[in-house]
Amino acid sequence: MVDFLLHTGYSARMARVKGSRNADYEKERRRLLEAVRVRLLEADGAQASFRQLAEVAGVSVATLRHYFGSREALLAEVMVDMHRLGMPRLLSVALEVEGPVRESLRWFLQSLSKGWRVGSVGAVHAFGLTAGMGHELLGPVYVKELLEPTLQAAEARLSRHIADGELRHCDVRHAALELVCPVVLGLLHQVQLSGASCRPLDVERFLEDHLETFLRAYAVSPATG
Prior knowledge:
The protein is mainly α.
């Protein structure tokens, strides 16, 4: 009976008014999210069990369940948190660097590539894809919190160039997919799937060729710069 009460958090709830939270509840929840996020961004992180995630966070399974409910709910919350942490960078990718369309889109693609290979962008998407593929809860959360924000950053940049008359009017969502998806596939191929060891790709050259192809399809007039 004691174990059951501890597992359900009954003793903790008895110490406070029903519906209220300890003063340190949110602080501890944030700490747990940060600890779990570091583990999930490792190469095999998406396969970590709930028990392994609890161990990494330095708490019991019962405590982790008290804060997040289930493994799926925890992973979904981590994706939401990754979105929050990535928003400043996404806004930068969407809005920074004015100038001619070629210069602007080159910067966008190079920023995506650098963030993927040097920063945590690749690890974030690899985790989201692995956890979300075929999963009715986590798949849509990955799309909403991580994949779509990246595509929407591209849409925002393309929309500006359409408004400036540099790109033809089009379905901007389709254009964003055409701009981003080949690069994401190429980076997954080279980095997360270790394609660089068996089928290396000159990523910088690929980005330039891809940009030229995109501009031939969408530029109003030959873009220079």
